[in-house]
């Protein structure tokens, strides 16, 4: 495994390889866990060479968010990457000047003024800007993103299709702890009590899945059930929403012909956790 610290270095390293081998890319902010490892496994299964970037992107953090506190664990990350068979780590110290790039991308409000975007203005603009920079540097054939960050996955899919970027976006399923909690770098902020309470997030999503599968199509009924599960764990969600998985438009009623996905974000202790699951009305 090789580690590149600048755009020029990774470009040089990949230059001749890309002529005969396919490249899969897993962009990360480090602090790798089993969720990332599953993205890496997917990347390995789909291409000859796997590149992982580790870069905590200041552009996607708001003024009062956890940029300074965000865990930076490069040694441990590199070890995990080596064990997982990653070929290249791209670990730049910065990707743009101190004031940020002069040219940035902007994601459409229709995709960003809801869910996480509503409370994190500018977040997805920061994500698409840096992912575009990373794509231009690495020039992968395939890029793998986790379904846990569904809104991010959706925005990136739209960026790639609207801007005709020559990369295939592949989604990887959310990896969960045994009790259902979605794996996240932010889970390490949870105290033991928070950790117990946090299980309610996936339980609330599963309860909506079960109700939908049993034929309940009324969104308010689904949400009420989920809110009760969260309230019993002492959690007031930042949002609990049911939306179309691609347009992210609000769904008012479940309809077996049109897909829907349920989304929750909640602060548990000092950690802001997110999760989502598909809903299928089967009756
Ligand atoms: O999902 C993440 O870790 C980040 O948002 C990403 C895609 C690496 C961009 O900084």
UniProtKB/TrEMBL annotation:
Pfam families reported in the protein's UniProt record: Pantoate_ligase
Pathway of action: Cofactor biosynthesis; (R)-pantothenate biosynthesis; (R)-pantothenate from (R)-pantoate and beta-alanine: step 1/1
Keyword Phosphoprotein: no
Positions with a binding annotation for beta-alanine: 60
Subcellular localization: Cytoplasm
Entry EC no(s): 6.3.2.1
InterPro entries tied to this protein: Cyt_trans-like, Pantoate_ligase, Pantoate_ligase_C, Rossmann-like_a/b/a_fold
Major site of localization recorded for this protein: cytoplasm
Catalysis: reaction(s): (R)-pantoate + beta-alanine + ATP = (R)-pantothenate + AMP + diphosphate + H(+)
Keywords from the named record: ATP-binding, Cytoplasm, Ligase, Nucleotide-binding, Pantothenate biosynthesis
Active-site annotation: 36 (proton donor)
Alphabetical GO biological process terms: pantothenate biosynthetic process
Cellular-component GO terms for this entry: cytosol
CDD domains: PanC
Annotated ATP binding sites: 29-36, 146-149, 175, 183-186
MF GO annotations: ATP binding; pantoate-beta-alanine ligase activity
Subunit structure: Homodimer.
Functional summary from the UniProt entry: Catalyzes the condensation of pantoate with beta-alanine in an ATP-dependent reaction via a pantoyl-adenylate intermediate.
Note: The reaction proceeds by a bi uni uni bi ping pong mechanism.
Protein name: Pantothenate synthetase
Lineage, opening ranks: Bacteria, Pseudomonadati, Pseudomonadota, Candidatius Mariprofundia, Mariprofundales
Name of the gene this protein is made from: panC
């Amino acid at each position: 495994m090789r580690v590149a610290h600048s755009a020029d270095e990774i470009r040089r390293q990949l230059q001749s390889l890309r002529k005969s081998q396919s490249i899969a890319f897993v962009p990360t902010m480090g602090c790798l866990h089993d969720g990332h490892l599953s993205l890496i496994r997917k990347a390995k299964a789909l291409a000859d060479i796997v590149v992982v970037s580790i870069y905590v992107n200041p552009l996607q953090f708001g003024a009062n968010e956890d940029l300074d506190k965000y865990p930076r664990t490069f040694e441990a990350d590199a070890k995990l990457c080596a064990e997982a068979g990653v070929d290249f780590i791209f670990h730049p110290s910065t990707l743009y000047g101190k004031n940020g790039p002069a040219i940035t991308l902007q994601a459409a409000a229709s995709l960003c003024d809801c869910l996480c975007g509503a409370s994190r203005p500018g977040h997805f603009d920061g994500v698409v800007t840096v992912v575009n920079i990373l794509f231009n540097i690495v020039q992968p054939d395939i890029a793998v993103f986790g379904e846990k960050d569904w809104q991010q996955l959706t925005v990136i899919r739209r960026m790639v299709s609207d801007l005709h970027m020559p990369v295939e976006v592949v989604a990887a399923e959310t990896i969960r702890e045994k009790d259902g909690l979605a794996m996240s770098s932010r889970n390490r902020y949870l105290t033991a009590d928070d950790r117990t309470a946090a299980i309610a997030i996936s339980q609330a999503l599963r309860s909506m899945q079960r109700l939908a599968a049993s034929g309940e199509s009324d969104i308010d009924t689904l949400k009420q059930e989920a809110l009760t599960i969260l309230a019993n764990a002492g959690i007031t969600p930042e949002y609990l929403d049911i939306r179309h998985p691609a347009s992210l438009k609000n769904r008012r009623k479940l309809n077996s012909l049109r897909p829907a996905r349920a989304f929750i974000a909640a602060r548990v202790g000092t950690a802001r956790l997110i999760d989502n699951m598909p809903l299928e009305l089967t009756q």
